[in-house]
Amino acid sequence: MPKSTIRVATTEGCFRMIMPSLMRQFKEMYNDYGIRGVIGNAEQLWEMLENGELDIAFSGISLLAPECIEKDFLFEERLYLVVSEQMLQNYFPDRYPECVEEFRKGADIREFSGMPFCRSLPNLHCMQILDHLLEREEVTLDCVHTSGHFDLHQQMAQENLAACFSLSMYLPHLHELNLYSDNKLLVFPIKDLTETNPVYILTNKDKGYVEGTDELRIC
Amino acid sequence: MPKSTIRVATTEGCFRMIMPSLMRQFKEMYNDYGIRGVIGNAEQLWEMLENGELDIAFSGISLLAPECIEKDFLFEERLYLVVSEQMLQNYFPDRYPECVEEFRKGADIREFSGMPFCRSLPNLHCMQILDHLLEREEVTLDCVHTSGHFDLHQQMAQENLAACFSLSMYLPHLHELNLYSDNKLLVFPIKDLTETNPVYILTNKDKGYVEGTDELRIC
Q1: What is the per-residue pLDDT across B72-101, written as a single tens digit (0 to 9) for each?
Q2: How far, in Å, CA of B160 to CA of A9, rounded?
Q3: Per-domain boundaries in chain A
Q4: What are A40-59's pLDDT values in tens digits?
């Protein structure tokens, strides 16, 4: 039986990107601890931390989170525009491939408003950032798919079904997709999108020391 | 502008496995139609069909579904047990590798009850099938991760964090994972699990002909 079991959580997309290998590293370093991986949206994670159903979470945080939650800043994420080469060629026949260099300096979202898009629901902070920009620029996107699965959005972009948005943490997945396809996905910073998406380690400061939590921080 | 837009839906896991390439094929064959891809659980898909928010869905169906839904049988899925070679070796040190051949004839779930598992929530039909078996065999599994993301379960199995279950439709993903790792995932039929998981094409028989639906059936 493990000495104790640590319950670690993050949002669905982030879990997919980091947790399997993080959990393996933890098990390799601390084989006498158990580890459970939990998925939830930010609000669910805060609530589970508050109720003592979780020991540690990786997520964003807002003023709506319960006061007992302690945050340690982890990293800052940026949101990028992702378009396949073929789709760019179809939508900018007169400017391709020269436009690639131009968009690399900052893609103006208004120029892409004729494309179909995949996006996430507006409850994610990174989508609120985007929606502020769309509102300022008076742009409405034609969304052919809405879900929280950013890796799936990239797959659909590679099939030329849509353009999409990617947070920094999904770029390794994009580079992997690019290894196995001739239709490369291109990543552009978005012009005038200055807001970023901070990710924190969240714990409950009112709960006593949880065995294993400090060990996890080392991973 | 597209002639008309067809709204196609399936469950999250199935979407990930089949929809990006299905949607691309549809667009290649019928470029003058638009296609939107929607994700939902079975109950949500039935409701959206009933309300005319969807044209076609790929999903299971039960007696609880609204009467207006018409089903066409598509395929029958089986649920398999998935364990990595290293994990099998750790848990069956005296019987590995001979036990592999034995388990290929049908793995007795009781022999695996000491392993940690990933599984899905019991609201999925394929999990209800499993739960019937666990109940009959009086086995309780130690679940380190619960989610509807079967491809993620396979990733965690490859990291030796848990054993898991896979429906037939996720086996191509498993074979892909096996291409890039020395720690192969092994797939075993489950002894005494005879129930299967049927998947249907669902439409609303009360709604008139939807342009594009017949075209999609051809894909």
Answers
A1: 999 999 999 999 999 999 999 999 999 999
A2: 19
A3: 5-75+199-218, 79-195
A4: 999 999 999 999 999 999 99
Tens digit of each residue's pLDDT (9 = 90 or more) over A164-205: 999 999 999 999 999 989 999 999 999 999 999 999 999 998
Name the burial class of residue A156, with classes exposed (0-12), middle (13-18) and buried (19+) by CB atoms within 10 angstroms of its CB.
buried
Pick from A23, A34, A152: CB nearest B159: A23
Contact assessment for residue B164 and residue B118, using Cβ atoms and an 8 Å cutoff: yes
User: What tens digit of pLDDT does each residue of B16-30 get?
Assistant: 999 999 999 999 998
Report yes or no: A169 at the B interface, CB cutoff 8 Å. Answer: no
Q: How far apart are CA A96 and CA B185, in angstroms?
A: 43
Number of inter-chain CB pairs under 8 A, A vs B: 74
CB burial of residue B196 (10 Å; 0-12, 13-18, 19+):
middle
**Is the interface score ipTM higher than 0.85?**
no
Q: How far apart are CA A183 and CA A175, in angstroms?
A: 12
Contacts of A27 (CB under 8 A, 6+ apart): A33, A35, B160, B161
Cβ neighbours around B114 below 10 Å, total: 9
Which residues in chain A (30-49) have CB-CB distances under 8 A to chain B? 34-39
CATH H-level superfamily of B79-195: Periplasmic binding protein-like II (3.40.190.10)
Could you tell me if B160 lies within 8 Å of chain A, comparing CB atoms?
yes
Give A158's contacts in chain B (Cβ within 8 Å): 20
* Tokens matching residue A108: 């103006």
Which CATH architecture group holds B5-76+199-218? Answer: 3-Layer(aba) Sandwich (3.40)
Residue-wise DSSP of B134-149: HHHHT---EEEEE-S-
A147 touches B at CB < 8 Å: yes
Cβ contacts of A159 within 8 Å, gap of 6 or more: B20, B21, B23, B24
